């Protein structure tokens, strides 16, 4: 397993390219290798919102 995980069968919402998204779990970022767009991820904690 690597630090960056390939997200299979997903498209970038900016450029629309298939299978170019990578997840970096240490930084909590998903990045498109085609256009460079990145997004923060929010882990599920299993707790209900208050």
Give a quick precis of the structure.
The protein has a four-stranded antiparallel sheet, with no helix packed on it. It has no helices and four strands. The model has no long low-confidence stretch (mean pLDDT 83).
Structure explained in plain terms:
- There is one protein chain.
- With 50 residues, the protein is an all-beta fold.
- 0% of the residues lie in helices and 26% in strands.
- It is built from no helices and 4 strands.
- It has a 4-stranded antiparallel beta sheet with strand order 1-2-3-4, with no helix packed on it.
- A hairpin with a 5-residue loop joins strand 3 (29-32) and strand 4 (38-40).
- The relative contact order is 0.24.
Fold blueprint:
Elements (H helix, E strand, L loop, with lengths): L4 E2 L14 E4 L4 E4 L5 E3 L10
Antiparallel strand pairs: 1-2, 2-3, 3-4
- Report the C-alpha radius of gyration, rounded: 12 Å
How many distinct helices? 0
List segments where confidence is low: pLDDT < 50 over at least 5 consecutive residues: none
Strand order of the largest sheet: 1-2-3-4
Distance between the termini: 36 Å
Q: What's the mean pLDDT score?
A: 83
Shape assignment? elongated
Order of helices and strands: EEEE
Residue share in β-strands: 25-35%
Structural class: mainly beta
Keywords for this entry:
mainly beta; elongated; 50 residues; 0% helix; 4-stranded antiparallel β-sheet; 4 strands
